[in-house]
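User: quick one, fold this
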Amino acid sequence: MDFEDLINNHSLGENVNYQIFRHAKQFPKSGKKPLSQMDELALTDTLKLIFNVSKLYPDLAAAFAPSIPYIFKIISRIDIPEKPLDGLLSYLINCLSTLDLENKKGKPFENSPLFPTFNQNCNVDKLINILDQATSLYSPSDLETKAIPLLHSLIAIYELAPDGPRKYMEWLLLPEDNDRSRPIGQSDTLSSKLLKLSTAPYANLKTAICELMFTLSGKNAENLTKNIGYGFAAGLLASRGMEIPQTAGEAFAAEKFDPEVNPITGQRWDAEKQDTGPPMTKEEKEREAERLAKANGLLNVENPVTQALQEGRLQELPDSDSD
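Assistant:
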């Protein structure tokens, strides 16, 4: 089927956009009445068409950009189902992930559909609520495919967001002070759930979460380490092929950390279990932090001196007085 011909000469884009507009009117602000089965099937098929054409023919995706405001309108008004990444809601999110939300090739939107003036955070809030519920309901293997469009959409939205929604997204998606009462990644907050998922053996999920955290940190390795701790940051940076400090000691020296926060685990020092033994030296603290990070699965980087000793690459030097 020649979709380019259908769009350019047979008004496929205009007809599809009209159908999305028509369906959006079926979702009132209050008294949400479910679509009839026939209407839901029709909307689902239209969304599938947008997704498939935009995915297979990215140059044609601009034809469906006028549907973006109405897709957001439906998402904002639809109830989150028990399985948030299945059914109609999943098709809506899939479409967002393939469309140019900035609409660079089309006529500029009169008002931003991503950040409406009446509430700039409403769309962001809804999508993050969906993500929060999904990370609790689905297994990592399911999220490996189902969550990727949502994560990609959040990344794209953040990069287009003005300062207010950006800070709101950072507040919802990055660890906050309450998370630091224990090592980051061990609470039940969304940021902790995402970081735990980033250690699961699923490449697409790990990459998408890594990209989200990196983007929320201004695409800056130092900010990322400050936000999520060296343990998680080391793994995420390594997955991007970026240079990371090789040891905990080097990380301490290289990064500007909050002195009240353990840079390895991200936990506040005052919330850590107190040691009643003699005080440790700075070097002992670094080794202990590195040991704990490895024990928690946060760090998989070997101290080069330790590694050299284990491999027999270091030899004892003769005493200078034994000539």
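User: anything notable?
Assistant: The chain has a mean pLDDT of 82.
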